[in-house]
Amino acid sequence: MKNVLPLMVIAASLVVARSGAQAPPKDEHVNEVPAPKTAPRVVTPGASLGAAPSDAIVLFDGKDLSQWENEKGGSPALWTVADGVATVKAGTGGIRTKRGFGDVQLHIEWATPAEVKGEGQERGNSGVFLQSTYELQVLDSYQNETYWHGSAGSIYKQHAPLVNASRKPGEWQTYDVVYHSPAFDSDGKLTRRARFTVLHNGVLIQDNVEVMGVTTHTGPPYYKAHPDKMPLSLQDHGVPIRFRNIWIREL
Fold first, then answer.
1. What's the pTM?
2. Superfamily designation of domain 57-250
């Protein structure tokens, strides 16, 4: 039995030699993916959990809404800013960034009113619109029944969240989003759909889901060609939702 293994190795070598095949390469790393030619760019993480990293664009730092305007453009954002928080001022309209974005990583913190009023979609409703078009729903979904693809963390009317990770009314909550924008050809034809990955309070709730089109309240979603970069928008749904610590990284 001791001589069997060496004999097998010799026989295999003879077969390779006679067939003209090449022996396997000796380099144990030959099948590994080649290393990048340059080192990764250095980004300093935020000093605390949720703080903006060094390459982020801080959209709201608690001081003012100078980087925002009314959702219709051309006029100032009229939401209330106090104590480091921006609060929806009902009836003034949504707000949008003055700058446009495409593929991004977004961090945003929000809180619904501590005093619960209404139920379903009337309770703590707002929305975060990527490219002013595709809505990530903001809602008080703590022990609040509504249609699943309209609850907190849903891609509104398209994808329900994987789980309900909502905190109690009045408590601060976080969305961390990786968003890839859609692409259109020169004729305006869709060539790639938008995609969302979302963590709600640190819990994965949307896992690289494919957006079926623009956010609509009724009727099926559809795609309409738009620029590669468009503003980030926040919705005025008539409820005093609070926002803070909003930053974004272009990907």
1. 0.86
2. Exo-inulinase; domain 1 (2.60.120.560)
